[in-house]
Structure formats: C-alpha cells, structure tokens
Amino acid sequence: MDTATILLVDDEPNIRRALSRLLILDGHRVLTADSGEAALELIAANDVDILISDIQMPGMAGDELMGRVRHLGKRFRRIVLTGSNDPDLHGRLMQGTTVHRVLTKPWNNQDLRAVIAEEQRSARWSREQEGRLARLRSSLASIEARPEYGAVTRDNVSALVRLQQTLMPFHAPSRVQLPARVLIRALMVAELMGIDAAQTALLRKAALVHRAGELALPEEVFARPAHDLSPGELDEFRYYPEITVSLLDPRDRELIAVVRSHREYPGGNGFPAGEPVAPSLVTSILTAVTEFEESMLFQPGEFEGASEVKRHLIRHRGDRYDSRVVTAILRT
To answer: Does residue 134 sit in the same domain as residue 29?
Structure first.
C-alpha cells in the first residue's frame, strides 16, 4: 500500500485520536491540528498529500479552511467531515470545487480507507501529469523550432494545433473531432451575433487550442466522458484549462483569459476555480459551444439527443450561459 502524509483537523481530541490510530495502522504519516489556523501553519511547514477537516469548528470553519488552502498552489486532496446528512450541504461543498470529498460522521473505516486510496491515486496522477506536461512542452518546443514554424506565426497556436493533431488520435480517438466541431459552431455563432473581426480572430484561436491541456491527463481520464469519471478522476479533468494556459505564450493575455475561464460560470460552480466570473463575449461563446458539443458527443446517458441538449442550454440560460449566445446556438 502507498503511504501518504495526511493532515487531520478537528477540534475534538477523540476524533483526532480515532482517525490518527486508524491511519497510522495503515502506514500513513499523520499530522493533527485542532483549528484551521494551526492547520495552515502545518501546511506551510510540511508536504501534505491529503487534508481531512471537520466542517464545524470554532474560529475558522472547515469549508473556509478548504477555500484558503485551495489558493496556496499545493495540489493536495481535500476531504471534509460533517455530522450532517443534508444532501444540499454536500452538493454545495462539492460544486464549488473547494473540496474533493465529503464524508459523514460517524464514518465507516472501510469507506474511509477506500476514499484515501482513491485520493492517493489522484495525487499520483497529479505527479505523473507533471512528467507528461514536461514532455508536451518539449514536443511543443521542437515544433516551434522548425524553420517553417517561424515563417507562419509569432505565437504558439499553430504549434499547439499540430501537437493536438499528432497526439490526440493515439490518446483519445473519440475526441479527435471535438476541437473542429467547437471551432465550426463557434464561428457560426460569431457570425450570427455579428461580432467584430478582432473578437472573431480571438475566438478562432481559443477554439483551436482550448483543449490542448487534456493531452497531459492520464489516458483513463482523457479518453472517457466526464459522467463516467470517479470524483478523483473528475477533479483531474477539471484542471485541463490551467494546463492549457501553461502551454500558451504568456504574452497573449487575451487568449489566456479566454482559455482559463471558458469552463467557469457567471454564478460560480464551474471549473477550475469554481468562482463567479464576468466573462467576455468571446469566453461566453466558447463556454456554451464547448459544453453543447461535449454533450452531443459524450453524454448519451444524460442527454437523449440534440433536443435534450438544447433544452439543457435553455434551462441554464442566464446562470451558466449568456442568453444571447444560447439564442444564436439554437439558430445554428
């Protein structure tokens, strides 16, 4: 069994002792804290793999702690413990991407062990992802170094497109047609909405490269639709916009802004950040078109045909999708 460094945060000593005993017997290194403030100090001084925190504590509550640590740049796994069986509470915690798992007290030891094992797998994927990302960057650099590349473009969009065309058929044949479908429909929407040439050019670039980061995901995540993924796998999938951004030319700030936020929603609960955004029109088009085409290709269990996908767009007009964009998609 792989071992992990696990930080337990609970204001009740009996809970900390019981969890520590179980996890130490399984071979894990266990750190404990009785408050959110103490937990932040331990996180700053240690490499933590998994954080498990009670949701209700004096001072800094568990959900506030999770929100704080999410922005520290350390991609460890976050699990909350709660005495509540309220499904709405569980849904709110998960939807905001503040936590990866919600466990109910009293916990079942075998269930807890299974969750820890899956979160370890997700952490291992994250480490392996860094290696895949390094190889992607190396491939990208080799394409950019070709003499013909410099004559074509000054940014790395063409190189990323070439990289996707080369690697995607081997990693996930089912996804090969998705970027082209998104591009075609996005440009149709742009024409119907009458957006100007500069915005259309930005939309074209974003549609071409927005999924390049998926190539750094584990194949078992990349090659399957989101509704078939486990919670840990889904969290890996939700990181792809940030991976794509890391491959882009840092000088292309407009493109980076569109790609980074194209899976976020005005009301929050999107990804990777899960926070409310005020998207540009280009971003709004890419968001709605991406999710429309994904649903058409990969979500047969959730959406029964084009009519149901369109009804989904209409249901979320205004909260997830720009109403003007939805109207244009329905006309394509």
So the answer is: no
**Bridge partners, 104 (sequence order):** 82
Given a cut of 60, is residue 263 above it in pLDDT? yes
CA distance 299 to 293: 10
The reply to whether 240 and 145 lie within a common domain is: yes
Domain with 23, as residue range(s), is 5-107
Cα dist from 204 to 10, 255, 265, 295, whole Å: 49, 10, 21, 21
Q: Hey, CA dihedral for 229, 231, 233, 238, is it positive or negative?
A: positive
Of 56, 72, 107, the residue at which a domain comes to its end is 107
pLDDT in tens, 149-180: 444 344 567 777 776 766 665 555 656 678 88
pTM score, whole prediction? 0.62
Residues 6 or more apart whose Cβ sits within 8 Å of residue 163? 136, 139, 140, 143, 212, 215
22 and 134 part of one domain: no
Q: How far apart, in whole angstroms, are the C-alpha atoms of residue 102 and residue 322? A: 31
Half-sphere exposure of residue 49, counting CA atoms within 13 Å on the CB side? Answer: 20
Up-side HSE of residue 94: CA atoms within 13 Å toward CB?
Answer: 14
| Contact between 259 and 271 (Cβ < 8 Å) | no
